[in-house]
Amino acid sequence: MESINRNALKLLAFAGSNSSTSINYKLVKYTATLISEHEVELLDMTDYSFPVFSEDLEKQEGYGPLLVKLKDKIVQSDALIISVNEHNSNPSAYFKNVLDWLSRVDRNFLADKKILLMSTSGGRRGAMGSLEVVKAVIPRFGGETVATFSLPSFNHTFDEQKGITDAEHSEAHKKALKSFLSKI
């Protein structure tokens, strides 16, 4: 008989990108494979498409079932793992739009959520600009970033079969994940 871990938490993991080739999704997916003591649900954000937010559209159409489904998944989770992509040193328009919609459904949609916030890019900064912007707004929605990790030069430091191949960054990733898991 399989034992059940009654202390297991429900973690929700996703990237801030809706690209079918998202490197941030690859990083989140890899991170999720390293967690065995908790239940991790991995979302593919290509399944979550929303119109560009506007107050007029909100008044006319309200909140669609897909948006409510995403909000409910977040609210029902115990903690989050998010990896944000970067466009021009900021979060992508897609992720900003997701945050805008979610905050209209429930301003505190991240209430009491502990978050491991990550980022990666092909460049040397590893999408740090985006990570810092998102980290700064998370408290506005009730969440708390308890650990961060940024992986620079993704195409040179990550392999889909092996994960993070650079020893220094692999160790930093393990440390961030361990810190996150100890705080949830």
TrEMBL record:
**The NADPH-dependent FMN reductase-like domain, residue ranges:** 10-146
Q: Which InterPro entries does the record associate with it?
A: Flavoprotein-like_sf (IPR029039), FMN_Rdtase-like_dom (IPR005025), NAD(P)H-dep_reductase (IPR050712)
GO CC annotations on file: cytosol
The entry lists its GO molecular-function terms as: FMN binding; oxidoreductase activity
Q: Taxonomically, which superkingdom?
A: Bacteria
Please name one Pfam family that this protein belongs to: FMN_red
- SUPFAM superfamilies from the entry? Flavoproteins
**Record's protein name:** NADPH-dependent oxidoreductase
The species is: Arenibacter aquaticus
**Which lineage?**
Bacteria, Pseudomonadati, Bacteroidota, Flavobacteriia, Flavobacteriales
